């Protein structure tokens, strides 16, 4: 991937750009805005932008001065440039080319001098609108219609080539700021400042869908709302929407009036969404590529599946992003994305062949539309011979413009991996494997943006030795082909509780890192009510002076025991007999804050804690051994967990931003999170709806499975004399009572690998006891394993027994053990000596282990 920001196109700090578009052949790119205090459109040769050594012909092909050009769009089938200018749509036609004109300065004015191309005004579509036109769109493949939207709340449809007004679509009650045709030309989507998105039929010109929910209440602070359809026509992605108070980009399925997925993480309003107009084949599966631009100066690229962004570029411009345009060069395999900003600058991202997968050809796309929508789509290309595009001048003669030739180079980059598996690239390069061979495509899934992502920093400005500043990098299809596949595990039929991982969950992109959102954010409710053991009720309400009051109501007397007040709305509340944990949502700063109160009096025990990311769940549980102690767990939408250990006089954070996304398959939920205290050692435990119990290994800083509902072997399938007593046993029996014991015993004892299965299970129990710091259970399971191995027919039992005894003897005769560095629950030499003696007593009863006994005695 290569990032190019040509400084010779920039309009200057006091100028602006409003639109950018690359023509279908990839020969020209048009930018519209104000240049040198003059409203104009400049058409550049795309090849001269992408290749800094390209000096064969002039960079600037033509300049057109016109009033207030807000949008430019090239047609699909002819050399026509549509321009939104004031309350009209102007159509410019390429009438002549002059190959003799070279090296025309980019600052040239249309009032003097010649240009390599001549564009003349052909038609002015002034009927229909009575106010400024904000966006225009040609009907794909055949240019049959040209649609325009305006601040007069209307959409005008013009027929082509007759250039006559066909109809005016009325229904929006606010400024219509964006529209887009679906790839078949059957539907037209529009987005307005009235908080709605409408879908219109091109056969009846009637509104078929109106979507309101994610757009209601969106601020009217965006000049444009440029939405787009996916190349397969199954969905479209909108511009500015809201999830609670956070700006998002919403994805809406064709024929549905609800939001299917949300692209979350931009800090300010999304202004533009653009799909690559081709379906990609990645590892034999069909994918769509989406670019999203925002007012927060961030550009993000997304794959529809497997739910991950290709890259994120922060601070790309000094201002936001207003318009984008894709082009695919099938001859050289290059994919280009052009981006423009109101700060007067534009940039181009070039992907080399194979970095994004294999795009379908025009013929394959036409067959896809024919099979899926039963429509015949013509190939939207002008005739091209030998890489040259014929252009007709005003006299009817044909000239040939030179086909674009782009040379790309890749610099050697370095890469390393962090402890959590994320890549750290310096500066912008991720190695790319060769593309997978294409196979028969499968149906395209809906876009459900989650997987680990790598943040791509923005290019650092450098003094340009030449006319453009270029930064090279490779893209990240390797993250696509090597991403972890979601395991298929049956889930319980009972209703899910707590945080649920959704198969269509959104992706969040914090400003500091690129994270993955597996869980939906908590919804902000007007009133929250929580009951505490049917004795007390916590209730929230908004007062007339715009503050939020939390009241603790006695269930018997119905009187308020205490009240507390907060300046922000309450997002979540959880409580025990002694503590209340709540999270407020600061709508101004888009952040959440955690408060801890005493349940009896409502006093605030600690200062508010500003949470690092968007909240997905809040849990609190009492310590079974100490009721004056509690565990508060905070789960973020990115799948990170933070745990706070709480008492009346102290508060600690044993777990800070630890990933739990890999513990939950889609649609699974978290049942509970609590701290198990045993022999002055604390272990944070997590229970899921799939029947799994996990414990956090504080020494290794990782999660380990303490109980697996679908284990082939378990305590329930073992004889009663092979069961222990302790925290591990208690947890297993408490959370594994729904297992079918008879079925598991039948499977175990009928398996030809029964002895291996039991041996593996006993070894696992030994290490689970270590995680819980249970000396008694560790000794029990270790001696049980020795007894089982001695009595088994395993061929390698002597090796295993010798390794166990060597381990124990090594600690008996070694220097004093560093308790903090040891992974074992045994702390002293005497404890190891006792376990070793017990093992030797067991082995004396077996003749084939007598040699081992004599050696260690």
UniProtKB/TrEMBL annotation:
<dbReference type="GO" id="GO:0006351">
    <property type="term" value="P:DNA-templated transcription"/>
</dbReference>
<dbReference type="InterPro" id="IPR001680">
    <property type="entry name" value="WD40_rpt"/>
</dbReference>
<keyword id="KW-0804">Transcription</keyword>
<dbReference type="Pfam" id="PF07569">
    <property type="entry name" value="Hira"/>
</dbReference>
<keyword id="KW-0805">Transcription regulation</keyword>
<feature type="compositionally biased region" description="Polar residues">
    <location>
        <begin position="389"/>
        <end position="413"/>
    </location>
</feature>
<dbReference type="InterPro" id="IPR011494">
    <property type="entry name" value="HIRA-like_C"/>
</dbReference>
<feature type="region of interest" description="Disordered">
    <location>
        <begin position="389"/>
        <end position="418"/>
    </location>
</feature>
<dbReference type="GO" id="GO:0000417">
    <property type="term" value="C:HIR complex"/>
</dbReference>
<keyword id="KW-0853">WD repeat</keyword>
<feature type="repeat" description="WD">
    <location>
        <begin position="169"/>
        <end position="210"/>
    </location>
</feature>
<keyword id="KW-0678">Repressor</keyword>
<dbReference type="GO" id="GO:0031491">
    <property type="term" value="F:nucleosome binding"/>
</dbReference>
<feature type="compositionally biased region" description="Pro residues">
    <location>
        <begin position="435"/>
        <end position="448"/>
    </location>
</feature>
<keyword id="KW-0156">Chromatin regulator</keyword>
<keyword id="KW-0539">Nucleus</keyword>
<dbReference type="InterPro" id="IPR036322">
    <property type="entry name" value="WD40_repeat_dom_sf"/>
</dbReference>
<keyword id="KW-0677">Repeat</keyword>
<comment type="similarity">
    <text>Belongs to the WD repeat HIR1 family.</text>
</comment>
<comment type="function">
    <text>Required for replication-independent chromatin assembly and for the periodic repression of histone gene transcription during the cell cycle.</text>
</comment>
<dbReference type="InterPro" id="IPR015943">
    <property type="entry name" value="WD40/YVTN_repeat-like_dom_sf"/>
</dbReference>
<dbReference type="GO" id="GO:0006355">
    <property type="term" value="P:regulation of DNA-templated transcription"/>
</dbReference>
<feature type="region of interest" description="Disordered">
    <location>
        <begin position="435"/>
        <end position="503"/>
    </location>
</feature>
<feature type="compositionally biased region" description="Low complexity">
    <location>
        <begin position="467"/>
        <end position="488"/>
    </location>
</feature>
<dbReference type="Pfam" id="PF00400">
    <property type="entry name" value="WD40"/>
</dbReference>
<dbReference type="GO" id="GO:0006338">
    <property type="term" value="P:chromatin remodeling"/>
</dbReference>
<dbReference type="InterPro" id="IPR031120">
    <property type="entry name" value="HIR1-like"/>
</dbReference>
<feature type="domain" description="Protein HIRA-like C-terminal">
    <location>
        <begin position="602"/>
        <end position="797"/>
    </location>
</feature>
<protein>
    <recommendedName>
        <fullName>Protein HIRA</fullName>
    </recommendedName>
</protein>
<dbReference type="GO" id="GO:0000785">
    <property type="term" value="C:chromatin"/>
</dbReference>
<dbReference type="GO" id="GO:0005634">
    <property type="term" value="C:nucleus"/>
</dbReference>
């Amino acid at each position: 991937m290569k990032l190019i920001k040509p400084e010779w196109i920039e309009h200057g700090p006091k100028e602006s750009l409003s639109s950018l578009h690359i023509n279908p052949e990839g020969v020209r790119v048009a930018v519209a805005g104000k240049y040198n205090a003059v409203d104009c459109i400049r058409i550049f040769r795309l090849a001269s932008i992408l290749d800094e050594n390209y000096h064969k012909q002039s960079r600037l092909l033509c300049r057109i001065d016109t009033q207030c050009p807000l949008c430019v769009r090239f047609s699909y089938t002819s050399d026509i440039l549509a321009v939104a200018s004031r309350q009209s749509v102007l159509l410019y036609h390429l009438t002549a080319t002059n190959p003799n004109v070279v090296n025309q300065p980019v600052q040239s004015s249309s009032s003097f001098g010649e240009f390599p191309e001549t564009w003349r005004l052909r038609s002015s579509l002034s009927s229909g609108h009575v106010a400024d036109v904000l966006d225009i769109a040609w009907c794909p493949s055949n240019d049959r219609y040209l649609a325009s939207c305006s601040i007069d709340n209307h959409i005008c449809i013009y027929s082509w080539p007759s250039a006559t007004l066909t109809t005016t679509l009325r229904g929006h009650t606010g400024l219509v700021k964006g529209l887009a045709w679906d790839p078949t030309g059957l539907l037209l989507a529009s987005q307005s400042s009235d908080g709605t998105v409408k879908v219109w039929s091109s056969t009846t010109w009637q509104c078929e869908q109106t979507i309101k929910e994610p757009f209601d209440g969106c601020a009217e602070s965006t000049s444009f709302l440029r939405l787009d359809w996916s190349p397969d026509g199954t969905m479209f992605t909108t511009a500015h929407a809201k999830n609670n108070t956070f700006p998002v980009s919403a994805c809406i399925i064709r024929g549905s009036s609800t939001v299917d997925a949300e692209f979350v993480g931009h800090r300010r309003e999304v202004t533009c969404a653009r799909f690559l107009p081709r379906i990609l084949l990645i590892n034999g599966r069909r994918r769509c590529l989406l670019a999203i631009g925002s007012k927060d100066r961030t550009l993000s690229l997304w794959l529809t599946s497997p739910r991950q962004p290709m890259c994120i570029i922060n601070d790309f411009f000094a201002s936001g992003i207003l318009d984008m345009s894709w082009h695919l060069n099938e001859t050289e395999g290059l994919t280009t994305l052009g981006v423009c900003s109101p700060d007067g600058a534009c940039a181009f991202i070039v992907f080399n062949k194979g970095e994004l997968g294999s795009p379908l050809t025009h013929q394959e796309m036409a067959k896809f539309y024919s099979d899926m929508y039963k429509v015949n789509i013509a190939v939207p290309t002008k005739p091209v011979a030998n890489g040259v595009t014929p252009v007709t001048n005003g006299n009817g003669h044909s000239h040939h413009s030179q086909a674009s030739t782009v040379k790309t180079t890749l610099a050697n980059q370095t890469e390393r991996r962090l402890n959590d598996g994320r890549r750290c690239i310096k500066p912008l390069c991720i190695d790319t494997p060769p593309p997978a061979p294409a196979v028969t495509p499968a149906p395209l899934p809906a876009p459900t943006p989650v997987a680990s992502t790598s943040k791509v920093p923005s290019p650092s400005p450098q003094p340009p030795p030449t006319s453009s500043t270029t930064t090279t990098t490779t893209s990240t299809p390797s993250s696509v082909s090597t991403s972890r596949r979601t395991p298929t595990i049956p889930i319980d039929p009972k209703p899910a509780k707590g945080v649920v991982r959704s198969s269509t969950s959104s992706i969040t992109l914090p400003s500091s890192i690129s994270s993955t959102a597996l869980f939906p954010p908590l919804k902000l409710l007007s009133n929250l009510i929580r009951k505490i053991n049917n004795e007390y009720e916590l209730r929230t309400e908004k007062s007339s002076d715009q503050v939020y009051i939390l009241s603790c109501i006695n269930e018997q007397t119905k009187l308020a025991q205490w009240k507390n007040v907060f300046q922000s709305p309450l997002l979540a509340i959880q409580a025990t007999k002694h503590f209340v944990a709540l999270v407020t949502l600061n709508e101004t700063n888009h952040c959440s804050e955690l408060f801890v109160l005493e349940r009896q009096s409502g006093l605030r025990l600690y200062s508010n804690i500003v949470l690092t990311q968007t909240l997905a769940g809040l849990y609190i549980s009492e310590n079974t051994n100490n009721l004056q102690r509690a565990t508060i767990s905070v789960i973020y939408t990115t799948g990170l967990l933070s745990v706070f250990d709480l008492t009346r006089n102290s508060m600690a954070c044993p777990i800070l931003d630890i990933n739990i996304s890999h513990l939950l398959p889609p649609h699974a939920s978290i049942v509970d999170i609590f701290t198990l205290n045993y022999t002055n050692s604390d272990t944070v435990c997590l229970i899921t709806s799939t029947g799994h119990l996990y414990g956090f290994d504080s020494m290794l800083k990782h999660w380990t499975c303490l109980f697996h509902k679908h284990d082939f072997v378990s305590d329930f399938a073992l004889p009663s004399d092979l069961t222990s007593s302790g925290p591990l046993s208690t947890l297993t029996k408490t959370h594994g009572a729904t297992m079918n014991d008879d079925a598991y015993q039948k499977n175990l004892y009928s398996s030809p690998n029964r002895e291996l299965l039991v041996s593996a299970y006993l070894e696992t129990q030994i290490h689970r006891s270590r995680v819980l710091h249970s000396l008694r259970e560790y000794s029990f399971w270790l001696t049980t394993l020795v007894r089982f191995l001695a009595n088994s027919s395993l061929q390698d039992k002597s090796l295993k027994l010798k390794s166990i005894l060597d381990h124990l003897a090594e600690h008996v005769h070694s220097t004093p053990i560093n308790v903090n560095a040891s992974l074992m629950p045994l702390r002293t030499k005497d404890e190891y000596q006792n376990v070793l003696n017990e093992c030797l007593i067991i082995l004396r009863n077996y003749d084939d282990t007598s040699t081992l006994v004599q050696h260690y005695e």
